Task: structure prediction
Amino acid sequence: MHPARPSFLAPETAIAKLVRGKLKAHFAQKRPDLIIPDSVWSTPWVVRITRWGEGKDAVLRYLARYVFRIAITNSRIVGFDERSVSFRYKHRQSRRWRTCTLTGEEFMRRFLQHVLPKGLHKVRYFGLWHPSKRCAASNVRLLLSMERARHLPPQSIANTQRSGGGSDQSSAPAERVCPNCGLGHLVLVRKLLPKQPQAP
Result:
C-alpha cells in the first residue's frame, strides 16, 4: 500500500458511480413519471473533483462559472470559414491554451448541448428568493436589522449625562428606544415620502 497524496479525496470512478446511483434513486422517488433511457444509467459518468477553496465565497465563485457564463465566448473563436470553426481552449492537465478545429456541424452540436430545452431555466428561485416573495423578504431583512440593533449596548443621552462623559461621548448619536416596549431600539430603514401627483 502507498499513502495517498494530501490533495487526494476519493477515487473519481467510485464517486461517479455513487453520484449516478444517488441521482437515479432521487428521480425514481421524486419523479417516477419521467421516462429516462437505460443508457443514461449504464454509460460511465465523468466526475471531476477539484478544490475550489472553503466557505461560501468559494462556492459562489464555483457556481457563478456555470450559472452566468455561456458555453464559449467570441474571444475564444480564432477563425471560421464555410466548413470549419477554430477556437481556443485550456487543457486541464497542462493548464495551457490550445487550438481545436471542428466542422461547423460538430461545433454546433457541441454548442447546443449547453442550451437548455424550452421551459427550463438555469436558476430557479424558491422560498424567499422567489419574485412573488419580495415583500416577505423585505420584512425578514427588517426583522434581522432590528434583532441586531436589539443586541447593541444601550446608549442614551440620559446615560451619557449621568456618567459625566466627555465631549466624545456626548457627540455620539443616541439610540431611539421603542416607546411601546422600552426594550427594542428603533432603526431607520428609509423615509416614506408622500407620492407626488402625476399627470395622466
